[in-house]
Amino acid sequence: MIRENLAEVEEKICKACERAGRDRDEVTLIAVSKTKPISMIEEVLNAGIIEFGENKVQELTLKCEILPKKIHWHLIGHLQRNKVKYIIDQAYMIHSVDSLRLAQAISQEAVKKNVTASILIEVNVAMEESKYGVSIKEVLPLIEEVSKLPNLKINGLMTIAPFVENGEKNREIFKELKKLSVDIKTKNIDNVNMNVLSMGMTGDYEVAIEEGATHVRVGTGIFGERNYNID
Ligand SMILES: *Cc1c(COP(=O)(O)O)cnc(C)c1O
Questions:
Q1: Per-residue pLDDT reduced to its tens digit, 47-68
Q2: Which one, of 226, 176, 172, 178, lies nearest residue 202 by Cα?
Q3: CA angle 174, 179, 182 (to 5 degrees)
Q4: Ligand 1 atom closest to residue 95's alpha carbon, by position in its atom list
Q5: CA 216 to centroid of ligand 1, rounded, Å
Q6: Architecture of domain 2-223
Q7: Where does ligand 1 bind, in terms of residues with CB under 6 Å?
Q8: What are the N6-(pyridoxal phosphate)lysine sites (modified residues) in this protein (predicted)?
Q9: pLDDT tens, 91-137?
Q10: Mean pLDDT of all residues in the chain?
C-alpha cells in the first residue's frame, strides 16, 4: 500500500510543479513518520526516500538510533528547551523554532557539541490559537536576534496551515509565507538565507507547491491514517 501511496504523492508533486512552472528538483518530500513503526519507515526508505519528519523528540531519537544513518530526520513538532540536548546532533533540520529563548538553547547545545544547527522559523500565519509559531509581524525582529547566535543557521520559514477539507482554502496562507520569505531575503541578514519554505501537508501540499513550497511534509498521504492510541 505504501508503494502505491508514494507513487500517487510523487505524481501529484510532479503535476503541481508543472502547473507552477517549477522543476521537480525544487521540492523535497518529507515523509512524516510520527506514530508509524520502523517496518513502515523501512519500506519508504527502500523506495528511495531519505527525508523523514517526526514531531516528538523521544520518538525521533529512538528511530534515529535504530534506522540507517543516511536518513535526514526533520524535527517538525514543538520543541522544549530542556529537550534540545537530545536532538541537537540527530536532527537534520529543526522546523519549529518560535522564540529567542529556544534558539538560544539550540545555539548553546550546538556550541557544546561543535555542530551547526539548521533551523527554520515557525510562523503562525493564520494566527490560530491552538498553534505554535510567531506572528508574521514578529518574524523579522526574531530573525534579527537569532541570526547573531553562534552555531546556528536560519535556512527559512515553516508554517502549519489550518486543517481543511479543501487545500485550496489555504492558498492565501502559503502566498503570505512566500511573500514574507522574499521580503526577508531582500534584507540580506548575515547567517540567514531563505532557501527553505516548509509548507503543505497531505490535505494541501499541491497548493503549497504551486505557491512556492520547497519542502512538503506528508504523513497520511504516504503512511495512511494515524492511530494515536496504539503507538
Ligand atoms: C503530522 C504533521 C504533518 C503531516 O500531516 P498529514 O496531514 O498526515 O500529512 C506535517 N507537519 C507537521 C508539523 C505535523 O505535525
A1: 999 999 999 999 999 999 999 9
A2: 226
A3: 130
A4: 13
A5: 9
A6: Alpha-Beta Barrel (3.20)
A7: 32, 34, 55, 76-77, 160, 201-203, 217-221
A8: 34
A9: 999 999 999 999 999 999 999 999 999 999 999 998 888 889 999 99
A10: 96
